[in-house]
Structure to design on (161 residues):
């Protein structure tokens, strides 16, 4: 079995009165991400990338946003569950690269904390997870600070025993 790749994309709206959770890190800000779970846009993109690489469908199939069990869910816990699904299917993650597209607040201070959360949840070394940040330069829903988007790519290989 050769190395396989998956992509993931997600976006969530920014609203007052919600926590801003990105990559498992809660960030102090007047707006937070709205959604059924904790709306952790980065972790959701990573989950879809891993599921994609293992031909396991998408996050909505495994953790439906109509299921009350996932109301307010900690998305790092969902990533751990996705990692278990992956390993049960005979795969393990090799490398994860990500981009968060967010106008404000600036998230780069939290880069290592996000990388460490994703690495711990997937059993990867921190050197095998990368988190990048960019803005919308004032353009589009990200630029107007209406929401945050995230992209991820993951490679997986055969699980070692
Ligand atoms: Mg999502």
């Amino acid at each position: 079995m050769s190395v396989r790749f998956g992509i993931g994309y997600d976006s969530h709206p920014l609203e007052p009165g919600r926590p801003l959770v990105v990559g498992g890190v809660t960030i102090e800000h007047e707006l937070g991400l709205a959604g059924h779970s904790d709306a952790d846009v980065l972790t959701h993109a990573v989950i879809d990338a891993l599921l994609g690489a293992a031909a396991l469908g998408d996050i909505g199939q495994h953790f439906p946003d109509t299921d009350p069990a996932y109301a307010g869910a900690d998305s790092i816990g969902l990533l751990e569950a996705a990692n278990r699904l992956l390993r049960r299917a005979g795969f393990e993650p090799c490398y994860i690269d990500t981009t968060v597209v967010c106008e404000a607040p600036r998230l780069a201070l939290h880069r290592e904390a996000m990388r460490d959360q994703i690495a711990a949840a997937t059993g990867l070394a921190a050197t095998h997870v990368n988190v990048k940040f960019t803005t919308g330069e004032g353009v589009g829903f990200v630029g107007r600070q209406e929401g945050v988007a995230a992209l991820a790519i993951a490679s997986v290989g055969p699980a070692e025993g």
The helical segments are 41-53, 59-62, 75-88, 111-122, 140-143. Residues 75-88 form the longest helix (14 residues). The chain has five helices and seven strands.
